[in-house]
Write a structure and sequence with these properties.
Layout: H1 2-67, H2 72-94
Helix pairs in contact: 1-2
Amino acid sequence: MDRLDHLEHLDKHLVEELAQVTRETVREELREQTRKQRRKAMLYAASGAVALYAGAALALAVGLALALGLPDWAAALITAAILGVAAYVLRGAARPSASRPTPGSDHVVGGSAPATPPSGTGVPYPPVPPVAPGGVGGATGAPGAGTPAAGTPGPGVPPRPDDIDPEQPRHQA
């Protein structure tokens, strides 16, 4: 038995050493990736700053060009209006809108499901039963039954952060 105890100690030592080597390797890999990402972020920031100055120079050029035929205050006002419209258009382009679906998207926004699937064959979606399994009278609180168990939110109510169990597997539709 004394020999087996010695082997068990060696196994524990080997596992600890392997875990340490793994931690160091992962740590070094993360350092290298972070270094690359930091350099990329600095280049993006510098690019943004230069683009800001280029935009300011362009706005100044537009204002000075308008000032040749208009009073200075009117040229500045027109330049500000042009910049405001450009900012509004860019903001609208950056924010997705529910009223205008993106081209090529198959999901339905704010409407009903299509009558036939894109392929043109078969039933597009499985039929939904009018009452949940278990029926209205057979509500047991079990998953899929008519009513939720006590302490759980009803359908359509998002769960609170303290209700989420990280150990429970997630099922996405």
